[in-house]
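Q: Got a minute? One more chain.
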Amino acid sequence: MAVTNLTYLILDGHMDLQNYRCVYFLITLTVYVSIIVFNTSVIFTIFMNKHLHEPMYIFIAALLCNALFGATALYPKLLIDLLSEKQIITFGACLFQAFCMYTYATSEFLLLSVMAYDRYVSICNPLQYATIVKMSTVRNLILFSWLLPCCEIGVAAVLTCQRQLCKFKLNRIYCDGYSIVKLSCRETSVNYVYGLFIFSIAVIPPVIFIVYSYIRILTVCLKNSKDFRRKALQTCLPHLLIVIFLSVTFFFEIIYNRLESNQIPHIIAMIQSVEYILIPPLFNPIIYGLKLQEILKSMKRLISWKQRTSISF
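A: Always. Here it is, folded:
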Protein backbone atom coordinates (compact mmCIF):
# COMPACT_ATOMS: atom_id res chain seq x y z
CA MET A 1 0.00 0.00 0.00
CA ALA A 2 1.31 3.44 -0.92
CA VAL A 3 0.82 6.50 1.26
CA THR A 4 2.34 9.90 0.44
CA ASN A 5 4.73 8.26 -2.07
CA LEU A 6 6.05 5.88 0.59
CA THR A 7 5.65 2.13 0.30
CA TYR A 8 4.69 0.47 3.58
CA LEU A 9 5.13 -3.18 4.41
CA ILE A 10 3.20 -5.13 7.03
CA LEU A 11 5.16 -7.32 9.45
CA ASP A 12 2.64 -10.12 9.76
CA GLY A 13 4.68 -12.45 11.95
CA HIS A 14 3.41 -11.13 15.29
CA MET A 15 0.90 -13.28 17.18
CA ASP A 16 -1.50 -12.76 20.10
CA LEU A 17 -0.33 -9.22 20.74
CA GLN A 18 -3.70 -8.21 22.14
CA ASN A 19 -3.49 -10.66 25.03
CA TYR A 20 0.25 -10.80 25.68
CA ARG A 21 1.48 -7.43 24.43
CA CYS A 22 2.92 -6.28 27.78
CA VAL A 23 4.50 -9.66 28.51
CA TYR A 24 6.27 -9.78 25.14
CA PHE A 25 7.36 -6.17 25.53
CA LEU A 26 8.83 -6.68 29.01
CA ILE A 27 10.68 -9.85 27.95
CA THR A 28 12.08 -8.17 24.85
CA LEU A 29 13.06 -5.03 26.76
CA THR A 30 14.79 -7.12 29.43
CA VAL A 31 16.75 -9.00 26.78
CA TYR A 32 17.79 -5.80 24.98
CA VAL A 33 18.84 -4.01 28.18
CA SER A 34 20.75 -7.12 29.27
CA ILE A 35 22.59 -7.21 25.93
CA ILE A 36 23.54 -3.54 26.28
CA VAL A 37 24.67 -3.88 29.91
CA PHE A 38 26.61 -7.15 29.50
CA ASN A 39 28.40 -6.15 26.30
CA THR A 40 29.26 -2.60 27.31
CA SER A 41 30.56 -3.84 30.67
CA VAL A 42 33.12 -6.13 29.03
CA ILE A 43 34.01 -3.54 26.37
CA PHE A 44 34.51 -0.90 29.08
CA THR A 45 36.63 -3.29 31.12
CA ILE A 46 38.91 -4.00 28.15
CA PHE A 47 39.10 -0.30 27.27
CA MET A 48 39.97 0.81 30.81
CA ASN A 49 42.69 -1.78 31.48
CA LYS A 50 45.87 -1.24 29.48
CA HIS A 51 47.13 -4.76 30.19
CA LEU A 52 44.10 -6.00 28.23
CA HIS A 53 45.11 -3.98 25.15
CA GLU A 54 46.28 -7.15 23.44
CA PRO A 55 45.05 -8.67 20.16
CA MET A 56 42.89 -11.37 21.76
CA TYR A 57 40.99 -8.90 23.95
CA ILE A 58 40.71 -6.28 21.22
CA PHE A 59 39.12 -8.90 18.95
CA ILE A 60 36.69 -9.73 21.77
CA ALA A 61 35.78 -6.04 22.12
CA ALA A 62 35.20 -5.82 18.35
CA LEU A 63 32.96 -8.90 18.49
CA LEU A 64 30.90 -7.37 21.29
CA CYS A 65 30.62 -4.04 19.45
CA ASN A 66 29.28 -5.96 16.47
CA ALA A 67 26.76 -7.64 18.76
CA LEU A 68 25.51 -4.23 19.95
CA PHE A 69 25.17 -3.15 16.32
CA GLY A 70 23.12 -6.23 15.42
CA ALA A 71 20.91 -5.98 18.50
CA THR A 72 20.20 -2.31 17.83
CA ALA A 73 19.14 -3.19 14.29
CA LEU A 74 16.41 -5.45 15.67
CA TYR A 75 15.19 -4.65 19.17
CA PRO A 76 14.18 -0.93 19.07
CA LYS A 77 11.84 -1.52 16.11
CA LEU A 78 10.58 -4.76 17.67
CA LEU A 79 9.78 -2.96 20.93
CA ILE A 80 7.84 -0.27 19.04
CA ASP A 81 5.87 -2.94 17.15
CA LEU A 82 4.96 -4.74 20.36
CA LEU A 83 3.23 -1.58 21.60
CA SER A 84 1.64 -0.66 18.27
CA GLU A 85 -1.76 -1.60 16.92
CA LYS A 86 -0.32 -2.07 13.42
CA GLN A 87 3.15 -3.47 12.75
CA ILE A 88 4.18 -1.59 9.63
CA ILE A 89 7.47 -0.29 8.25
CA THR A 90 8.45 1.71 5.18
CA PHE A 91 10.15 -0.14 2.36
CA GLY A 92 13.33 1.91 2.79
CA ALA A 93 13.49 1.30 6.56
CA CYS A 94 12.78 -2.40 5.99
CA LEU A 95 15.61 -2.66 3.48
CA PHE A 96 17.95 -0.83 5.86
CA GLN A 97 17.08 -3.19 8.73
CA ALA A 98 17.74 -6.20 6.50
CA PHE A 99 21.07 -4.67 5.47
CA CYS A 100 22.08 -4.18 9.11
CA MET A 101 20.99 -7.67 10.16
CA TYR A 102 22.88 -9.41 7.34
CA THR A 103 25.93 -7.19 7.82
CA TYR A 104 25.97 -8.10 11.52
CA ALA A 105 25.76 -11.85 10.78
CA THR A 106 28.43 -11.76 8.06
CA SER A 107 30.78 -9.66 10.21
CA GLU A 108 30.23 -12.06 13.10
CA PHE A 109 31.55 -15.00 11.09
CA LEU A 110 34.53 -13.00 9.84
CA LEU A 111 35.41 -11.77 13.34
CA LEU A 112 35.15 -15.31 14.70
CA SER A 113 37.49 -16.55 11.97
CA VAL A 114 39.93 -13.74 12.76
CA MET A 115 39.83 -14.75 16.42
CA ALA A 116 40.46 -18.37 15.42
CA TYR A 117 43.50 -17.20 13.45
CA ASP A 118 44.74 -15.28 16.50
CA ARG A 119 44.39 -18.36 18.73
CA TYR A 120 46.00 -20.56 16.07
CA VAL A 121 49.11 -18.36 15.85
CA SER A 122 49.25 -17.92 19.63
CA ILE A 123 49.17 -21.66 20.35
CA CYS A 124 50.83 -23.17 17.28
CA ASN A 125 53.49 -20.48 16.68
CA PRO A 126 53.95 -18.73 20.04
CA LEU A 127 57.51 -17.53 19.33
CA GLN A 128 56.39 -15.73 16.17
CA TYR A 129 53.12 -14.39 17.59
CA ALA A 130 54.39 -10.86 18.31
CA THR A 131 55.77 -10.43 14.81
CA ILE A 132 52.78 -11.96 12.99
CA VAL A 133 49.89 -10.45 14.96
CA LYS A 134 50.89 -6.80 15.23
CA MET A 135 48.54 -4.03 16.32
CA SER A 136 48.43 -2.72 12.75
CA THR A 137 47.41 -6.23 11.63
CA VAL A 138 44.70 -6.29 14.29
CA ARG A 139 43.25 -2.98 13.07
CA ASN A 140 43.32 -4.09 9.45
CA LEU A 141 41.63 -7.41 10.21
CA ILE A 142 38.86 -5.71 12.20
CA LEU A 143 38.27 -3.12 9.48
CA PHE A 144 38.22 -5.89 6.88
CA SER A 145 35.66 -7.83 8.95
CA TRP A 146 33.35 -4.80 9.01
CA LEU A 147 33.88 -3.20 5.59
CA LEU A 148 33.74 -6.32 3.42
CA PRO A 149 30.25 -7.33 4.67
CA CYS A 150 29.04 -3.75 4.15
CA CYS A 151 30.11 -3.91 0.50
CA GLU A 152 28.74 -7.43 -0.08
CA ILE A 153 25.36 -6.78 1.56
CA GLY A 154 25.24 -3.28 0.08
CA VAL A 155 25.21 -4.73 -3.44
CA ALA A 156 22.38 -7.08 -2.44
CA ALA A 157 20.45 -4.12 -1.00
CA VAL A 158 20.85 -2.18 -4.26
CA LEU A 159 19.59 -5.17 -6.27
CA THR A 160 16.59 -5.54 -3.95
CA CYS A 161 15.83 -1.81 -4.00
CA GLN A 162 15.34 -1.94 -7.77
CA ARG A 163 12.56 -4.52 -7.51
CA GLN A 164 8.92 -3.51 -7.95
CA LEU A 165 6.71 -4.98 -5.24
CA CYS A 166 3.34 -6.64 -5.84
CA LYS A 167 2.87 -7.98 -2.30
CA PHE A 168 3.25 -6.06 0.93
CA LYS A 169 3.08 -8.61 3.76
CA LEU A 170 6.10 -10.27 5.34
CA ASN A 171 5.41 -13.28 7.51
CA ARG A 172 8.16 -12.09 9.84
CA ILE A 173 8.67 -9.93 12.93
CA TYR A 174 11.59 -8.15 11.29
CA CYS A 175 12.83 -7.54 7.75
CA ASP A 176 15.25 -9.80 5.94
CA GLY A 177 16.42 -9.58 2.36
CA TYR A 178 15.10 -12.91 1.15
CA SER A 179 11.57 -12.17 2.41
CA ILE A 180 11.62 -8.75 0.73
CA VAL A 181 12.75 -10.25 -2.58
CA LYS A 182 9.82 -12.69 -2.51
CA LEU A 183 7.44 -9.71 -2.59
CA SER A 184 8.70 -8.76 -6.04
CA CYS A 185 6.42 -8.77 -9.07
CA ARG A 186 8.99 -10.16 -11.48
CA GLU A 187 11.46 -13.03 -11.69
CA THR A 188 14.15 -12.75 -9.01
CA SER A 189 16.83 -15.25 -10.04
CA VAL A 190 19.55 -12.56 -9.99
CA ASN A 191 18.85 -11.84 -6.32
CA TYR A 192 18.75 -15.54 -5.45
CA VAL A 193 22.00 -16.30 -7.27
CA TYR A 194 23.77 -13.35 -5.68
CA GLY A 195 22.41 -14.34 -2.26
CA LEU A 196 23.83 -17.85 -2.66
CA PHE A 197 27.12 -16.35 -3.86
CA ILE A 198 27.36 -14.12 -0.78
CA PHE A 199 26.52 -17.06 1.46
CA SER A 200 29.18 -19.21 -0.20
CA ILE A 201 31.96 -16.63 0.23
CA ALA A 202 30.93 -14.91 3.46
CA VAL A 203 29.92 -17.84 5.67
CA ILE A 204 31.32 -21.14 4.39
CA PRO A 205 35.04 -20.14 4.12
CA PRO A 206 35.17 -18.65 7.67
CA VAL A 207 33.52 -21.76 9.12
CA ILE A 208 35.93 -24.05 7.24
CA PHE A 209 38.89 -21.95 8.39
CA ILE A 210 37.68 -22.05 12.02
CA VAL A 211 37.34 -25.85 11.87
CA TYR A 212 40.80 -26.17 10.31
CA SER A 213 42.34 -23.87 12.95
CA TYR A 214 40.87 -25.86 15.81
CA ILE A 215 42.00 -29.15 14.33
CA ARG A 216 45.54 -27.76 14.24
CA ILE A 217 45.20 -26.38 17.77
CA LEU A 218 43.91 -29.73 19.03
CA THR A 219 46.83 -31.50 17.37
CA VAL A 220 49.32 -29.22 19.14
CA CYS A 221 47.53 -29.57 22.47
CA LEU A 222 47.67 -33.37 22.33
CA LYS A 223 51.45 -33.20 21.95
CA ASN A 224 51.98 -30.94 24.97
CA SER A 225 51.57 -31.11 28.73
CA LYS A 226 48.31 -31.24 30.63
CA ASP A 227 48.84 -27.69 31.93
CA PHE A 228 49.36 -26.43 28.36
CA ARG A 229 46.15 -28.13 27.22
CA ARG A 230 44.23 -26.61 30.12
CA LYS A 231 45.40 -23.05 29.34
CA ALA A 232 44.77 -23.48 25.61
CA LEU A 233 41.27 -24.84 26.11
CA GLN A 234 40.51 -22.07 28.61
CA THR A 235 40.97 -19.44 25.89
CA CYS A 236 39.58 -21.49 22.99
CA LEU A 237 36.47 -23.04 24.55
CA PRO A 238 34.43 -19.78 24.74
CA HIS A 239 35.21 -19.07 21.12
CA LEU A 240 34.25 -22.58 20.05
CA LEU A 241 30.93 -22.42 21.93
CA ILE A 242 30.03 -19.13 20.26
CA VAL A 243 30.90 -20.49 16.80
CA ILE A 244 28.63 -23.49 17.38
CA PHE A 245 25.77 -21.30 18.68
CA LEU A 246 25.97 -18.89 15.75
CA SER A 247 26.42 -21.53 13.05
CA VAL A 248 23.50 -23.69 14.16
CA THR A 249 21.04 -20.81 14.58
CA PHE A 250 22.10 -19.00 11.40
CA PHE A 251 22.06 -22.08 9.17
CA PHE A 252 18.66 -23.13 10.53
CA GLU A 253 17.31 -19.64 9.81
CA ILE A 254 18.54 -19.80 6.21
CA ILE A 255 17.07 -23.28 5.66
CA TYR A 256 13.70 -22.34 7.18
CA ASN A 257 13.52 -19.12 5.18
CA ARG A 258 14.01 -21.09 1.95
CA LEU A 259 11.69 -23.99 2.76
CA GLU A 260 9.03 -22.26 4.88
CA SER A 261 7.77 -25.56 6.22
CA ASN A 262 4.21 -25.43 7.54
CA GLN A 263 5.02 -28.30 9.90
CA ILE A 264 6.93 -25.93 12.19
CA PRO A 265 4.62 -24.00 14.59
CA HIS A 266 4.64 -20.29 13.83
CA ILE A 267 5.68 -19.22 17.33
CA ILE A 268 8.66 -21.59 17.27
CA ALA A 269 9.67 -20.36 13.82
CA MET A 270 9.54 -16.73 14.99
CA ILE A 271 11.62 -17.45 18.09
CA GLN A 272 14.11 -19.40 16.01
CA SER A 273 14.35 -16.54 13.48
CA VAL A 274 15.78 -14.20 16.13
CA GLU A 275 18.09 -16.69 17.85
CA TYR A 276 21.18 -15.65 15.88
CA ILE A 277 20.58 -12.08 17.07
CA LEU A 278 19.63 -13.24 20.56
CA ILE A 279 22.04 -15.97 21.68
CA PRO A 280 25.45 -14.56 20.61
CA PRO A 281 24.87 -10.94 21.79
CA LEU A 282 23.44 -12.16 25.10
CA PHE A 283 25.90 -14.95 25.88
CA ASN A 284 29.14 -13.68 24.31
CA PRO A 285 29.96 -11.29 27.17
CA ILE A 286 28.86 -13.82 29.78
CA ILE A 287 31.00 -16.59 28.31
CA TYR A 288 34.07 -14.39 27.84
CA GLY A 289 33.63 -12.61 31.15
CA LEU A 290 33.42 -15.87 33.10
CA LYS A 291 35.86 -18.03 31.13
CA LEU A 292 38.73 -15.63 30.46
CA GLN A 293 40.41 -15.01 33.80
CA GLU A 294 42.06 -11.71 32.86
CA ILE A 295 38.73 -10.10 31.96
CA LEU A 296 37.04 -11.53 35.04
CA LYS A 297 39.79 -10.27 37.34
CA SER A 298 39.74 -6.83 35.72
CA MET A 299 35.95 -6.59 36.10
CA LYS A 300 36.23 -7.51 39.79
CA ARG A 301 38.92 -4.84 40.29
CA LEU A 302 36.75 -2.21 38.58
CA ILE A 303 33.74 -3.13 40.70
CA SER A 304 35.73 -3.02 43.94
CA TRP A 305 37.30 0.31 42.92
CA LYS A 306 33.87 1.82 42.25
CA GLN A 307 32.61 0.54 45.59
CA ARG A 308 35.54 2.10 47.43
CA THR A 309 35.04 5.37 45.56
CA SER A 310 31.32 5.49 46.39
CA ILE A 311 32.04 4.78 50.09
CA SER A 312 34.63 7.55 50.26
CA PHE A 313 32.06 10.04 49.00
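A: Residues 91-124 form the longest helix (34 residues).
Q: Perfect, thanks.
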